[in-house]
Design goal:
- With about 240 residues, the protein is of the alpha/beta class.
- The chain has one domain: Glycerol-3-phosphate (1)-acyltransferase, CATH 3.40.1130.10.
- Helices cover about 40% and strands about 15% of the residues.
- The protein contains 10 helices and 9 strands.
- The radius of gyration is 17 Å and the shape is globular.
Length: about 240
Amino acid sequence: MPAFDHVRALGDTALGRRLRELPIDYFRATMEGVHHLPREGGALLVGNHAMTGLDGFVLGALVARETGRHVRFLGERNLWRIPVLRELLDAVGALPGEPGAATELLRKGELVGVYPGGIEDSWKLTTTQRYRLQWGNRAGFARVAIRAQVPIVPVAALGIDEMYDVVAREPVLGRTLLGSPRYDFPLALGVLGTPIPRRVPQRYCVQPPIDTTGEADDPTHVERIRAATFDAIDQVLRTIR
């Protein structure tokens, strides 16, 4: 049995449900707009990202609690180059951010989660970038949803950027390990300046699904869906920016 099937099976047990509640309880996390999450069939959950990716664990736990469904998250592909981490990512059902694999999962009726901003959105500087989406012109998620013929469900996460103060990014270790300045590790301060995240209440606001009818090779269709997703999340983030 693949590693993720074991995790999925564990999630349906009393122990699994208790473990699932741990990140929810720690961050006192809540979810609004649960009725927008489909109870069956494929859908692409798209959101803003936080330091260390802890928000993915919280969001996945909330979705599982509210719907009984498991989210398969797409991650930064280079993370699978790091021993131990890649085994952990595989175990929790994460996949390298590759369009073909994501499309296949969606067509099979899975819930797939993606953070278009990736590393840039996760490692935002507190002083200038908090709650500002770092997506650039990335639109691959829109093409994937169009090809899979599934809706996009935007999820705006509040509270996640207060877990840490990201004061700077170091210029050596990340680019040495992964080959690019975009991987410069953040200098992130949590509880009392430690790597432990602050216990800040988190609120996940699920927005109405976005229709993805169109042609994946038509830039106009892709941009319409990308912009609609961006705006749905940004309008919520604006309220606390």
